[in-house]
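Subject: two folds for Thursday's group meeting

Dear M.,

Sorry for the delay on this. The cluster queue was jammed most of the week, so I only got both jobs back this morning. I'm pasting them in the order they finished. Each block is the input sequence followed by the predicted structure tokens. Could you check whether the formatting survives your parser before we put anything on slides? The first protein is the one we discussed after the seminar.
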Amino acid sequence: MKLGVFMVLFGGRKLEDALDYVASKGLKAVEIGTGGHPGNAHCNPAELLGNEAALKNFKNAVESRGLMISALSCHGNPLHPQKDIAKGFHDDFVKTVELAEKLEVPVVNTFSGCPGDHEDAKYPNWPVAPWPNDFQEILKWQWENKVIPYWTEWGKFAADRNVKVGLELHGGFSVHTPATLLRLREAAGEVIGANLDPSHMWWQGIDPVQAIHILGREGAIHHFHAKDTTIDPINVNKHGVTDMQDYTNMLDRAWQFRSVGYGHDNKTWADIMSALRLVGYDYVVSIEHEDGLMSVEEGFSKAVQNLQQVLIEEPLGDMWWV
């Protein structure tokens, strides 16, 4: 496996400066934002798709530093019930897939999206309880009329261009657990897989190692994010894991995102890396930084240090007893 980083945390730096910094830390891969919530500070698909020289220069900027692009990322909600909002996210996805094909980047990361509760809704509706029965009816309508049709069509669009779709399992979206990912994958095809982020598993009460086994046995892990989470044992009893407080209210929140090693120890992260290898994942571990207690540089550097201790980088060799 290769260690990489989600470049959105260096969005305030010029691309070349950010790439130099990443390479100086010994990383081998970058994941680059192309629109949606990550923004396109380092990569604007509309500009690159229409300019072959600019496209060549962009690719050379990465490769000349000994780096590869693990994924292009345009996380958004293409199923948003407000059509103009949905179109913006959808267009970002389409352009990103087209750019990934040209750059020979194998994965585009995004969210599954979350529809409203009926055709004329204004806001997304994320059902999280089976009763009252209204929620079950909403969930059925969303999946049958929005989620499956959209990803069946646009998953094929990506597959036809040799691009896989890595959906981040994130609360607030229709695909947020291993089970919901596999449900969509069964309906829309193997082009759909996970951009698996342990931090979103922990706060939902899911063991990331078991999530890796569940998805990995199906070949359904397309990309991997490295971010940690800590659960406050007191606040979680007050607010529950679906705590709706702002992320900046760190003292009172039930859980919060941390840099790798600051929510769970290196043994836990070593178990995660071993599980990835066990199920055959041999691609990129991409650091994501959303730690409100650390600066970008400190959080990134600490994550690199911790992951370099546990990452399994070498390919599998012959066993002496075989």
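Second protein, same layout:
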Amino acid sequence: MTEVTPARLAPMPDDWQRALAVVAHPDDLEYGCSAAIASWTDAGREVAYVLATRGEAGIDTLAPAECGPLREREQRASAAVVGVSTVEFLDHRDGVIEYGTALRRDIAAAVRRHRPELVITLNHRDTWDGTLWNTPDHVAVGRAVLDAAGDAGNRWIFPELTERGLEPWNGVRWVAVAGSGTPTHAVDATDGLDRAVRSLLEHRTYIEALTDQDPEEYARGLLTENARETGRRFGDRPAVAFELFPR
């Protein structure tokens, strides 16, 4: 049988200034694409984070009331490592996020507030590359982001946002999905990879609950291998992959 060679990944567009990353939990971006975000902020681009939850149900040994504030602090510290100072939380409940108009409205409001050209989210499909089952939170948020990028530009879908002073924003040019099993584009991770590792390490409490492996060994090994594997389709340079949806 002839082995099929995966298609080469195209470079991500770089003719933009503002991006908004919207994901379900603290650490989603650090596992998915923070090396790319580091390279973008280095180039003077603005990136803001919006998280649907505070990750309060993510650590079995910590009650949500204790876990949520801790993971929020870890997320803010993690974002700072890659040059992101704006981190917002929508306060949906971790583990039981519901796809629907309430979630779309909250994300559309964030898009109107930040007025990005590029919106980033995480894999919205049922599986990771057709093998591992995805979580309902990732699916709900990723799908809602793709929809809300359009909702934000239509004044008649959520007119209450206009009443709150959030004027429609129809300037989203792309939605980029990290962790997709069918990526189309990539960003060189060479300069951002070390900071991506340090950014993931800021989620130390979560990592220590997740694995007995040394946290730095775990983070560096995981991100380096992912970047190297993606780089095989991007000129053999360490890379972060995205599935890009033009709007």
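Two things I noticed about the second structure. The chain has nine helices and ten strands. The mean pLDDT is 96.

Cheers,
T.
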